[in-house]
Write a structure and sequence with these properties.
Elements (H helix, E strand, L loop, with lengths): L4 E4 L11 H12 L4 E5 L20 E8 L5 E5 L17 E4 L3 E4 L17 E4 L2 H20 L18 H10 L30 E8 L5 E2 L3 E8 L5 E6 L17 E8 L2 E9 L2 E4 L9 E6 L5 E11 L10 E2 L1 E8 L13 E5 L2 E5 L8 E8 L11 E6 L3 E4 L8 E8 L3
Parallel strand pairs: 1-2, 2-3, 3-5
Antiparallel strand pairs: 3-4, 6-7, 8-18, 9-17, 10-16, 11-15, 11-18, 12-13, 12-16, 13-14, 19-20, 20-23, 21-22, 21-24
Helix pairs in contact: 2-3
Length: about 425
Amino acid sequence: MGGKISSSSYGSDYSGAYTASDAEVDQTLWQDDDMLIVFSAGNDGSGARTIGHPGHSKHALTVGALGANTSNSMSNSVIWCSSRGPTSDGRRKPDIMAPGVGIVSARGNTINTNPPSDPNQATTQTMDGTSMATPITAGGAALARQYFEDGFYPTGTSTLPDARSPLGAELKAVLLNGTAFIGGAPDNNYGWGRVWLDNNLFFPGDARKLRSFAKRQDVGIAQGETDEYTVQVAAGQEFRATLTWYDPPAAPGLAGRALINDLDLEVVAGANTYKGNVFSGAQSATGGSADTINPVEQVRLTSPTAGTYTIRVRGTQVPGDGSPYSERQGYALAVSAGGSASAVSAAPATVSAANVAGEITVTASAVGGATGYQLYRADGTCTQANALDFQLVEHGNGPALIDALTQGGYTYAYKVRGVDAN
């Protein structure tokens, strides 16, 4: 199947523009929904606009480095050499932080004999910098991926029918949705904060639950469309929603806005509406303007009021670049909040499908406690499809759902999940 998480600790100095290496990363991710690419921010800090390439790209998860205290315990302070944002077009970078001082790893060299001719060849070394923080973050991403593939999402207990491979943008959203806000986060020194898996991956007994909604590029939203989700939020626990997406690469050498397809995150909580990336300090504020340059948007409320929240993903500008499917934009939305156990009593049964003029209507039996239903699709027949390949294509209030974005000549398998807002 090939690797789905790439960790790289190299790059060139900041050039003042979007480069060919940035475009190469973004092109790779645009063409491969399943991939997450993690890059070091570089060690050219502490000034602004020192993020190297291709950490400067739109869609790499770019990692900055944190220091260590005198007791060698973890510090929440960025080390002096960690490169800082913003990018040439004003995007927030780095994306995330991880420890980068006193990290022990395998020592590299140019000896390729096997068995080693030098007894010191297979040794370790202690190093500092964003090159060390990056594989720590990639390792966290691998654990998060395993959480999904082992079927821990959404119940927190490993359940075989729930096993699914997360999309690359989905992993990115989950990681950024769980960070510890440190320093001045969100900003161009600390990004969205320190990697913290336990703050987002739900297990029985945790106070906050994770909801994840992710769509591939070919079933994403078009310009002017809006996808809407509801989540029940309890008071007393942080609410956070993070939207990420991989849009087509921009032209190398561009100094202006690199974003081509612009989505927007919006959260409605009672009488208040919050736009993605409109912050006052470390939490979201009402008002403000929609973000037009970043392919990551977040809403965070440290003391939310209890109620049913509506979360919208808007296709504000999706012109594409002329390549296949670029007039639609896939995305990932991760939401975490305090909530109660799901009231859904069982999985939907007696699922049937009918092809009507190229649109597939999938109907399942209603289940107790469900207030909505999600339709997942994979290539192949029901007996041939890889269980890990099912991805969200549609959702609605009733157990009859229409997949209107099929391709002629393909065979599809479907699953239906009953959900509530918890």
